[in-house]
């Protein structure tokens, strides 16, 4: 790896300070569903400062969205926070960066006219209003097109004859939009692009045969439409994707101190940065990311034999084929219960911070019975395509014989976060897909050994958590930005193995037979009770 002179893993404060002052640090930014995070690294991989900004999606007119004003307010606050953290730690406020990268939630629909004006509010991955479009595209293209993919949103808008469609000039993702404003280039990393429209794993570009099929499909409604003209250019990891312009620098730092000129890597989706952050980009490896949603990325040795509605076929940031099990509902419901228990502690005169409450709840889950004492929980705040539910209603269901204790309740909530993922992973197992290891990351895994052990039971595979499990996607995209300086001919997998994770500490938990059997009983009840979940959505 091309290192900043004098800076490596375990660099001294003076070395880090010199790198920061000399513009030798790399900035990674990720726009997640509840937080915008920034991570500053030196030497290509060592995190030295961080910053974040909380935000929330809004349900407006039946559509889950974020305003573009909220995007830039959040980005400015996040960048200010990481620069302030840098100044607090090292007495230096960087004014330039060696490289940068932007990542964000995948999928969704950002549609612009020829002047770059947003035509309709941003439709996020969470929206499930594209059922007809996704179904027809899956049939016509011969490839599973999930509800949340950008092309499903576009085709649904065409089917509905929405007024904005005749004015369309470009469609992109959130990461692609931010990158375009920062650099002036309309591009996407191949991993993010593969959630917009199917990518050919041989060419690492949009599948040309499927593009032609789409154009033919919409020819009667939208004569002359060429989908490729609406979509961003596709780039793979290591390719330069533009430089920070003066306008882009001002968008991130209105004080004017941030200088333009930093090269940017291709903008990626949160799935791609999760693979990088866990070092799982090689065949027979996988990672699980848990946040508002939960998804597994399984790098395939060969294409699947059949089309499965439970699975997306996407790619790594280098363009290798990946089966993605994406579930709309992750740890949000568990987090909501942690807030309730925190309020209860405060009402008793024993206030505790949110992390302590969340950690205590996770620890209690380990003390629960293997099958959660007969309790069943559903974490469905939103619809869940994997189980065929258009809407979600969080539930806790028990029979008179169930044993309601705090430990069993906590275990049921953790299990519910993994249950739908387990159903999707079961499809891969039936396809004969084998894994050597599954890596986990996200805040849920900061409490050592709890979620990791229960996830291993849920997927029946050893689960590894490394040093960077809590760093997340902002660090992952910073690492991808550092890959711009990798020696010629070094692929992404080798780069990560040799220069990023060579000395990483990794904790591996094997599935415990008792937990596996207990989770299987829970999952059986979970599947049987989906009728209850469906009825709740219909009635309430």
Automatic annotation (TrEMBL):
Transferase as UniProt keyword: yes
Cited Gene3D superfamilies: 3.30.420.40
CDD domains, A to Z: ASKHA_NBD_FGGY_BaXK-like (cd07809)
Carbohydrate kinase FGGY C-terminal domain sequence ranges: 286-482
GO molecular function, one term: kinase activity
Keywords of the record: Carbohydrate metabolism, Kinase, Transferase, Xylose metabolism
A family per Pfam: FGGY_C
SUPFAM superfamilies: Actin-like ATPase domain
Boundaries of every Carbohydrate kinase FGGY N-terminal domain copy: 26-251
Claim: Transferase is one of the keywords in the record: yes
Family statement: Belongs to the FGGY kinase family.
Official protein name in the record: FGGY-family carbohydrate kinase
Organism of derivation: Cellulomonas edaphi
């Amino acid at each position: 790896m091309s290192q900043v002179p004098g800076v490596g893993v375990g660099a001294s404060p003076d070395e880090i300070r010199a790198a920061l002052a000399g513009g030798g640090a790399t900035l990674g930014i990720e726009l997640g569903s509840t937080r915008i995070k920034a991570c500053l690294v030196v030497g290509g991989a060592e995190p030295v400062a961080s910053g974040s900004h909380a935000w929330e999606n809004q349900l407006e007119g039946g559509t889950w969205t974020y305003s573009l004003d909220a995007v830039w307010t959040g980005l400015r606050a996040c960048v200010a926070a990481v620069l302030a953290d840098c100044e607090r730690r090292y007495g230096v406020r960087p004014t330039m960066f060696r490289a940068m990268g932007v990542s964000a939630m995948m999928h969704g629909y950002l549609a612009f006219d020829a002047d770059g004006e947003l035509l309709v509010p941003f439709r996020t991955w969470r929206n499930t209003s594209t059922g007809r479009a996704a179904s027809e595209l899956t049939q016509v293209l011969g490839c599973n097109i999930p509800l949340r993919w950008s092309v499903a949103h576009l085709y649904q808008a065409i089917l509905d004859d929405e007024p904005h469609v005749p004015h369309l000039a470009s469609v992109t993702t959130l990461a692609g939009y931010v990158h375009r404003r920062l650099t002036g280039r309309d591009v996407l990393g191949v991993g993010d692009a593969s959630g917009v429209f199917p990518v050919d794993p041989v060419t690492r570009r949009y599948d040309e045969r499927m593009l032609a099929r789409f154009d033919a499909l919409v020819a009667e409604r939208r004569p002359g439409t060429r989908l490729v003209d609406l979509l961003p250019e596709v780039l793979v990891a290591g390719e330069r994707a533009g430089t920070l312009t003066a306008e882009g620098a001002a968008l991130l730092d209105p004080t004017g101190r941030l200088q333009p000129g930093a090269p940017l890597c291709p903008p990626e989706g949160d799935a791609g940065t999760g693979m990088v952050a866990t070092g799982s980009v090689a065949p027979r490896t996988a990672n699980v990311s848990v946040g508002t949603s939960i998804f597994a990325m399984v790098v395939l040795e060969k294409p699947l034999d059949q089309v499965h509605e439970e699975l997306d076929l996407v790619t790594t940031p280098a363009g290798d084929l990946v089966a993605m099990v994406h579930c709309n509902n992750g740890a949000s419901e568990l987090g909501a219960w942690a807030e309730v228990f925190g309020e209860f502690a405060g009402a008793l005169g024993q206030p505790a911070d949110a992390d302590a409450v969340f950690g205590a709840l996770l620890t209690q889950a380990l003390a629960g019975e293997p099958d959660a004492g007969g309790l069943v929980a559903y974490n469905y705040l939103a619809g869940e395509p994997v189980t065929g539910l258009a809407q979600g209603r969080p539930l806790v269901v028990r029979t008179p014989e169930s044993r309601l204790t705090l430990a069993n309740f906590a275990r049921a909530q953790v299990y519910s976060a993994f249950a739908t993922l387990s159903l999707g992973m079961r499809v891969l197992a039936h396809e004969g897909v084998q894994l050597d290891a599954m890596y986990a990351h996200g805040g849920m895994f900061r409490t050592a050994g709890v979620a990791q052990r229960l996830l291993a039971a849920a997927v029946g595979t050893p689960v590894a958590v490394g040093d960077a499990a809590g760093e997340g996607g902002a660090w992952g995209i910073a690492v991808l930005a550092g890959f711009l300086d990798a020696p010629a001919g070094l692929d992404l997998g080798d780069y990560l193995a040799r220069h990023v994770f060579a000395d990483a500490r990794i904790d591996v938990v094997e599935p415990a037979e008792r937990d596996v059997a207990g989770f299987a009983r829970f999952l059986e009840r979970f599947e049987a009770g989906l009728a209850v979940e469906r009825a709740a959505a219909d009635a309430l």
